[in-house]
Design brief:
The complex is a heterodimer. By secondary structure, chain A is mostly helical. Chain A is about 45% helix and about 0% strand. Chain A has helices spanning about 35-50, 65-70, 75-80, 85-95, 105-110, 120-130, 140-145, 170-180, 190-200, 205-220, 230-235, 245; strands spanning about 185-190, 230, 250. A two-stranded antiparallel sheet of chain A has the order 1-2. Chain A starts with about 35 loop residues before the first helix and ends with a strand. Chain B is an alpha/beta fold. Chain B has a domain at about 155-435. In chain B, about 50% of the residues lie in helices and about 10% in strands. In chain B, the strands form 2 sheets. Chain B has a 7-stranded mixed β-sheet with strand order 2-9-8-3-6-4-5. A two-stranded parallel ribbon of chain B has the order 7-10. The longest helix of chain B has about 55 residues, at about 5-60. The chains are: A mainly alpha, B alpha/beta. Chains A and B meet through helix 4, helix 8, helix 9, helix 10 and strand 3 of A and strand 1, helix 3, helix 4, helix 5 and helix 13 of B. Strand 3 of chain A pairs antiparallel with strand 1 of chain B, so a sheet runs across the interface. Chain A: It is found in: Cell membrane; Cytoplasm; Nucleus.
C-alpha cells in the first residue's frame, strides 16, 4: 500500500495521480490488504488535511485494497445504501462466483451455485439480474439487484424529487411483480401466472388444478375486471403483508 | 599490442601469457576443488544431523523434545495480541424457518376466503428471498475452499482480510519466511525423500521373505517407521484420543477426508490396508512395493467402474481376519475440515465392523486442506512443507455395526453424525461430489413436492 497526497483535481481520474512535493510514502508488504480501508481513508484524510492545504485524496496503490479496485464505489454505496464493509464482502463473493475472471458474471456462473439449483424459480431469479438483451452482469448491477433485499431504512430523510430508494417497500414489491411479469407489460396475465405455477410445481400437480388455482387467484386480486393483475392490484392485495420482514436479508456487520 | 613489439620480445611474450594462463587455470581448479570439498562436508554434516536427531528417534517412536520446543516457541509467537482480528462469521444471517412456517406466516396476513390449501401471490417472496440468500452466500461452495482464520498466523497465504499492523510484525513475518523456506523446507524434503525410499526398499526386502508371522511383524514395523519419518517431514504433531477403540483386523476404518496427508496421520499409529486406484509414476512404484509386504487393495481404473467387483474384493479382504483393517474415506473428495459431507453408501454395504475415526486439523499452524481445483499435488506438498507445522487431533470412536433392517444410507448417516459430533464439525447432507458435478434435479423436485402439498393439500384426489 502506498499512500500519497494529491490535488483534488486528480480525484476524478481513476489511477493517474501526480506526486506532490510533500508526499508520504509508506511501504507495506504486498499481500496485506486494506479490508477496513474505508475507515483508514477517513482517518488519514482528517488528520492531514491541514498539512497539505488541499483536500486529500488517498489512493491505495499496489496493495490489495479491495475498495479501491471497484470503480465508482462511492456512487454505488450512495445509491444502494450498503456500507463499505458490505460492498467489500459482496465484491469478494462476486469474484468467487466469477470463476473465469472476466470481471462479469454470466448465467452459467449463477447456475453453478449449488444451493440455488434446488430453488424452483431459479431461472427467474437469475433472469432478474440480466436486463433485456444483456448476457453479462457487472458488479454494479449485481449489487443494485441485491440492494432490493436490504432492510427498509426507517430513518431515511425524505428529500423532494429524490428517487425511490432501492430497498423501499414499493421497490421490493416491484421486484416481486417483475418475477411474475416476464414480458414487462405491467400486467400479470393468466398465462404468465400459469407459467409461474408450472415452474414452481412442475410434475406435482395436474394441468386442471393449475388452471383452477390461476383462475382463483386472478378472481381474488383483479379489481378492474380485465382478467389480469396490474401492479396496483398486486400491491393492494398484499397490503397487509410485512414486506420488509419477508423480502429482506439481514446483512451482518 | 604485442604484434608491434620487436620480434625478440614477441617471441617471449606468448610463453609468458601461456604461463599466466596455466597458473590461473590451476588456481581456478584449486578453488573449485576446495568448494566441492566444502560442499561435500556441509552435505555430510547436514545428513548426519538429520539422521541422528530426527530420523532415528522417529523410526523408533522416541521423541527428543525438539518438536515440542519448536511448537512452544511458535505458539508463543502467534499468541500475540496484535495478531487478533475480528471474527468474520459470514455475510448474512439466515432464518431457519421451514417452508411451511414461512409461507404460512406470509398467508396469515390475508383474509382467508377459500377453504383448503391455496396459492397466494405472496408465496413467491419466500422463494425469491431464499434464492437471493443463496446467491450472496451458500453453505456448500464455501466448504470447498480454505477456512478463514480468526487471527493471522504469519503465513502470507492466509492473510486475505488483514490490514497492515506494525513494522515489527513485518520484520517477524520476513524472518518467518526465511526460516520456513531456507531452513525448514530443505530439511523436510530430505526427510520425505529418506522416508519414501526407505518404504520402497524396506517393503521390497520384506516381500522377499516367505509368508509367516515374522513377515507380518516386520512389514508392520517397516510401514510404521516410514510413516513416522514422513510425519516428521511435515512437522506433524498428532494427538490420538481413545486409543482403546483403535481399528482391529478384519474391520473397516472410516474417516473424514481433508487431504492426502490423512493417510500419513492415521498410519502413524497403526497399520492399515489402503484402498485406491493404481497410479503410474512415483505413486505406482510405492503401490507396487507396498503390496509386496502386506496385502493392500489396488484397483485398476477399469475395475473401479464395476461396483459389484469392488464390493466383492473388499468383502473378501474383510472376511479374512488376518488381514489389516481397510482404510476408506467415504466422502470421496477433500472437504475443508469445517464440515462432514455425505458419506457414499458403498463402503457401508460391505459388511463387517466399522470403526469411525474423526480427524480435526488445527488451522492455526498450517492449512491442511487440499483444494484440488486450485493446486496440484506437488504445489500442495510444497505448501505443506512450508507451513509452520501440521497439528491435528484424531479421535477413535467405538465400533458400530449395521443394525437389523437398517439400510446402507441410514447407516452411513448415523456414522457421519457420530464423526461430525466428535470433531465439532458441521453435519451436512450435501454430496461432496458437488465440487465438480451438477446438482441433481431430485433436490429441486423435493422442494416442489413440499410446496405443492401446501397448495393443493387435502384437495388432491390423485
Amino acid at each position: 500500500m502506498i499512500m500519497f497526497f494529491s490535488s483534488p483535481s486528480d480525484v476524478k481520474n481513476n489511477g493517474h495521480r501526480r506526486f506532490f512535493p510533500y508526499c508520504h510514502i509508506i511501504l507495506i508488504p504486498r499481500g496485506v490488504s486494506g479490508h477496513e480501508s474505508g475507515g483508514i481513508t477517513t482517518f488519514f484524510a482528517r488528520r492531514f488535511h491541514h498539512v497539505t492545504d488541499h483536500s486529500c485524496a488517498i489512493i491505495m496503490g499496489s496493495g490489495d485494497s479491495t475498495l479501491s479496485k471497484i470503480p465508482n464505489v462511492e456512487e454505488l454505496m450512495e445509491e444502494t445504501g450498503f456500507s463499505p464493509a458490505h460492498v467489500v464482502r459482496l465484491y469478494e463473493r462476486f469474484q468467487a462466483l466469477d470463476k473465469s475472471k472476466k470481471g462479469q458474471l454470466s448465467r452459467k456462473d449463477f447456475e453453478s451455485i449449488k444451493e440455488l439449483a434446488t430453488n424452483p424459480i431459479r431461472d427467474r431469479i437469475i433472469g432478474a439480474f440480466f436486463a433485456q438483451g444483456q448476457e453479462m452482469v457487472d458488479f454494479h448491477t449485481f449489487v443494485r439487484i441485491l440492494a432490493h433485499f436490504r432492510p427498509v431504512d426507517k430513518n431515511r430523510p425524505k428529500k423532494a424529487n429524490m428517487q425511490e430508494p432501492v430497498n423501499s417497500r414499493t421497490s421490493k414489491l416491484r421486484f416481486a411483480f417483475q418475477l411474475y411479469d416476464q414480458d414487462n407489460d405491467g400486467k400479470i396475465s393468466r398465462n404468465e401466472l400459469l407459467q409461474v405455477l408450472r415452474t414452481m410445481l412442475e410434475m406435482q400437480v395436474t394441468d386442471e388444478q393449475l388452471e383452477s388455482i390461476a383462475d382463483r387467484t386472478i378472481q381474488e386480486a383483479d379489481l378492474d375486471g380485465d382478467n389480469a393483475i396490474s401492479f396496483d392490484e398486486f400491491r393492494k392485495s398484499l397490503e397487509k403483508v410485512n414486506i420488509d420482514h419477508k423480502m429482506s436479508i439481514r446483512f451482518l456487520r | 599490442c604485442l604484434c608491434s613489439d620487436p620480434p625478440v620480445v614477441s617471441g617471449l611474450a606468448p610463453q609468458k601469457l601461456a604461463g599466466t594462463r596455466k597458473n590461473l587455470e590451476r588456481a581456478w581448479d584449486g578453488i573449485m576443488d576446495e568448494s566441492w570439498d566444502l560442499t561435500f562436508a556441509v552435505v555430510k554434516a547436514w545428513f548426519s544431523v538429520v539422521v541422528t536427531f530426527i530420523m532415528l528417534p522417529a523410526m523408533f517412536g522416541v521423541s527428543l523434545g525438539i518438536t515440542e520446543l519448536y511448537m512452544k516457541i511458535l505458539v508463543k509467537t502467534l499468541e500475540q495480541k496484535r495478531l487478533q482480528k475480528q471474527m468474520t462469521q459470514g455475510i448474512i444471517q439466515r432464518d431457519d424457518g421451514s417452508m411451511e412456517q414461512e409461507i404460512g406466516e406470509l398467508r396469515r396476513c390475508r383474509p382467508k376466503s377459500l377453504a383448503g390449501g391455496e396459492f397466494t401471490l405472496s408465496d413467491i417472496f419466500y422463494f425469491s428471498r431464499k434464492g437471493i440468500e443463496s446467491i450472496v452466500e451458500d453453505e456448500v461452495t464455501q466448504r470447498f475452499s480454505s477456512e478463514e482464520l480468526a487471527s493471522w498466523n504469519l503465513l502470507t497465504r492466509t492473510n486475505n482480510n488483514f490490514h497492515y499492523i506494525s513494522l515489527r510484525l513485518t520484520v517477524i513475518w520476513g524472518l518467518g519466511v526465511a526460516i520456513r523456506y531456507c531452513i525448514l523446507l530443505p530439511l523436510r524434503i530430505t526427510l520425505a525423500a529418506i522416508g519414501l525410499s526407505w518404504l520402497v526398499i524396506g517393503t521390497t526386502l520384506v516381500g522377499l521373505l516367505p509368508s509367516s508371522r515374522m513377515k507380518n511383524w516386520l512389514s508392520e514395523l517397516v510401514h510404521l517407521m516410514c510413516y513416522r519419518i514422513c510425519a516428521r517431514a511435515l512437522s506433524a504433531t498428532i494427538h490420538y484420543h481413545n486409543k482403546e477403540n483403535k481399528p482391529r483386523k478384519g474391520g473397516i476404518c472410516v474417516a473424514n477426508h481433508t487431504s492426502p496427508i490423512d493417510v500419513v496421520i492415521l498410519a502413524n499409529d497403526g497399520c492399515y490396508a489402503m484402498v485406491g486406484q493404481v497410479h503410474g509414476g512415483l505413486m505406482g512404484v510405492l503401490q507396487r512395493s507396498m503390496v509386496k509386504s502386506c496385502p493392500h487393495v489396488w484397483f485398476e481404473r477399469s475395475e473401479m467402474k464395476d461396483r459389484h467387483l469392488v464390493t466383492t474384493r473388499l468383502r473378501n479382504h474383510v472376511a479374512d481376519k488376518e488381514k489389516l483393517p481397510i482404510l476408506i474415506f467415504p466422502e470421496g473428495t477433500c472437504i475443508n475440515n469445517t464440515s462432514v459431507m455425505m458419506f457414499k453408501k458403498g463402503s457401508f454395504e460391505i459388511g463387517g465392523r466399522i470403526y469411525p475415526v474423526t480427524i480435526k486439523y488445527d488451522p492455526q499452524f498450517g492449512d491442511a486442506f487440499w483444494n484440488s481445483g486450485k493446486y496440484n499435488m506437488v504445489s500442495y506438498l510444497l505448501r505443506m512443507m512450508t507451513s509452520w507445522a501440521i497439528v491435528c487431533n484424531v479421535w477413535y470412536l467405538p465400533a458400530v455395526e449395521r443394525q437389523e433392517g437398517e439400510d446402507a444410507v441410514h447407516f452411513a448417516n448415523r456414522v457421519k453424525s457420530a464423526i461430525a459430533r466428535q470433531g465439532g464439525l458441521e453435519d451436512l447432507s450435501w454430496d461432496g461430489g458437488l465440487k465438480r458435478a451438477k446438482v441433481k434435479d431430485t433436490y429441486k423436485e423435493q422442494q416442489q413436492k413440499k410446496y405443492s402439498s401446501m397448495i393443493v393439500g387435502e384437495d388432491s384426489s390423485d
